[in-house]
Amino acid sequence: MSEYVSSARFDRRTAHADHQHTAVFTHGFIININAHNRIGTQRRGLLAQLFKGNFARFAQLFFVCPRATANDIADPGEEIAKKTFNSRLGIEGGISILGTSGIVEPMSEKALLDTIFLELNTRKSAGDSIAVLVPGNYGEDFAKKTFGIKNTVQCSNYIGDAIDYASDLGFSDILIISHMGKLVKLGSGIMNTHSKYADGRMETLALCAALAGVENFADILDYVTTDEAYEIIGDTKTIDILMKRIDKYLKHRSDVNIGAIMFLNKQGIIGKTADVDGILERI
Q1: From CA 254, how far away is CA 252, in angstroms rounded?
Q2: Taking Cα atoms as reference points, which of 259, 185, 268, 201 lies closest to residue 234?
Q3: pLDDT by residue (tens digit) across 10-43?
């Protein structure tokens, strides 16, 4: 496959990346470039798709028309780049379409983890001393609106791996900001919050409610969402017990000073671990 590059400037540390696979973030599309220099699109249900290969460091976000060519994409690259994540990865002034196979591979766990590490490394290189981790858009928006924090790193379900990366990279503090639906799982030591590995949300809440003396704690097991369950436990010490359990497992995972903030969309902040206030003062 030919190589099409707009006038982008990028971090030269990425220049020796594996070009066997192209990695692209898209808002619902997979991009294929065929032998006739035609770009095809394929719909996907996820908000963002990340594809296999170390080339994830060139992740980009853009829409393309089904009959567009690679030149159609590369030529207006500077304008397209303004709508991408390129600037967060040190790529400025345009986009890059690179590869040898011309085929975009399905999303892989390794590629996603590599991208989390890359963004943490980028933040550390930019001078950040505190890693602020959010599972997704809810956490990112909440961090921005509530605390004015813009330099968050989305870690998806890989909270444990993101903690390990941030610790290894030498951040002085780690702050996790998450909706209750994700963070509650840490109260049972579950560090990969994808449901295919474990759920445990209601079981963890029911345990904490029982320890707090909530008489109808078993009713929690019948709920589907943590928002519903909170209606039972909101005015008890259940959340305090839960946050202490989360704090214990976080500190077991990392020697770095670490804290977590838990929120619900309606109620806002509903819990935080012991070291959060100190971390917020240093951000």
Answers
A1: 6
A2: 268
A3: 333 333 333 222 333 333 333 444 444 444 433 3
